[in-house]
Recover the amino acids of this structure.
């Protein structure tokens, strides 16, 4: 089986997607979930969280020294976020494409940020930027027991199994 599957994308690849406080306030949660379902990815974890400063500083540990970090912290702790884990082949890279450029000015129409935002300080959604980042962020936000391995009844229509 290993020989057969090596070189094929990992169908169990996972990424962390979060609807940020502006997205929740603007009632965009459903539309964002819809895009990932429609694409064919599988939702394996979902919760609403009021983020603490401590959790945020672990999540954005590479940005703590940036001049915009205090305003990022204020934004991200201003209200609940909806945090999700999505699974499927190349989900990390594909989600980044679906979410669009960090700066909405640069984001293509058709991406979440390109369709719903105009400024980097309120860009609606988070998506892990690498496999390693995704692993780290999923562990930070979720306990293993809260991620569900469930069989999709029509998986054969999404990918060869
Ligand atoms: P990403 O969210 O596309 O991965 P990062 O560079 O990791 O981009 O930045 C994390 C978040 O920090 C961005 O999504 C955005 O909310 C915020 N951010 C990044 N750069 C700026 C900035 O120059 N001003 C204000 N907020 C910023």
């Amino acid at each position: 089986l290993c020989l057969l599957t090596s070189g094929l994308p990992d169908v169990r690849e996972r990424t962390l997607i979060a609807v940020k406080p502006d997205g929740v306030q603007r009632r965009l949660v459903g539309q964002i979930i819809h895009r990932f379902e429609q694409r064919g990815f599988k939702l394996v974890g979902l919760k609403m969280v009021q983020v603490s400063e401590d959790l945020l500083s672990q999540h954005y540990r590479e940005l703590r020294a940036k001049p915009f970090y205090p305003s990022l912290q204020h934004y991200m702790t201003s209200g609940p976020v909806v945090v999700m884990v999505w699974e499927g082949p190349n989900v990390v890279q594909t989600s980044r494409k679906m979410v669009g450029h960090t700066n909405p000015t640069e984001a293509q129409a058709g991406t979440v940020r390109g369709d719903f935002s105009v400024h980097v300080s309120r860009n609606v959604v988070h998506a892990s930027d690498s496999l390693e980042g995704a692993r780290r962020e999923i562990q930070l936000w979720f306990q293993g027991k809260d991620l569900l391995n469930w069989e999709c009844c029509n998986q054969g229509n999404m990918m060869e199994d």
About this structure: Residues 9-51+80-146 form a domain with the Alpha-Beta Plaits fold (CATH 3.30.70.141). The chain has a mean pLDDT of 95. Residues 29-39 form the longest helix (11 residues).
